[in-house]
Amino acid sequence: MQQLLLPLLLVLVLAVPLVMSTRKQKKQQAAQQELQNSIAPGDRVMTTSGLYGTVADASGDTTIDIEIAPGVVTTWLRLAVREKVEPVVETEEDAADEVVETPAEEPAVIESATAVKTDEPQTTAQVAPPLEHGKK
Fold first, then answer.
1. Ordered strands of the 44-47 beta sheet
2. pLDDT (0 to 100) of residue 130
3. In terms of CB atoms within 10 Å, which of 23, 76, 82, 92 comes out highest?
């Protein structure tokens, strides 16, 4: 009896996590398949690469057309759709915030810290001497 207990316990320790992970994978695959089958025109989706868009045409078996900007429609594999997302709803406060304009700042004048007296007019930028290659 003692000889059978250790191998049986070892098999249980290895088999239980394997079975549990297989069940989790099957649930994820079923959820992904349900998502793929439920995609319809007008749905807002995110692709696996992080691109947001609106489904324009979902009539293909393996591909869908996603509008990523007004008038810009691209073709994607159905499997590239990661999830459906809620459409962005703009409130009146958000629209009012976007209209606010900031005044343009005047460019700052940078003056040289070391002034060199020359007959030429001074500029605000200092030019470095050209590099000489090959001299040590």
1. 72-77, 63-69, 52-57, 44-47, 81-84
2. 65
3. 76
**3-class secondary structure, 72:** strand
pTM for the whole thing?
A: 0.51
- The length of the chain, given as a count of residues: 136
Evaluate whether 122 touches 110 at the Cβ level (below 8 Å).
Answer: no
CB 53 within 8 A of CB 95: no
Residues of the chain predicted below pLDDT 50: none
**How many angstroms separate the CA atoms of 69 and 42, rounded?**
13
pLDDT of residue 100: 54
The one-letter amino acid at 131: L
- The pLDDT value recorded for residue 95 is 61
Strand, helix or coil for residue 18:
helix
User: Which pLDDT score, from 0 to 100, does residue 7 have?
Assistant: 83
Question: CA 83 to CA 80: how far, in whole Å?
Answer: 9
| Cα-based angle 94, 41, 65 (whole degrees, multiple of 5) | 100
> H or E element: which one contains 55?
strand 52-57
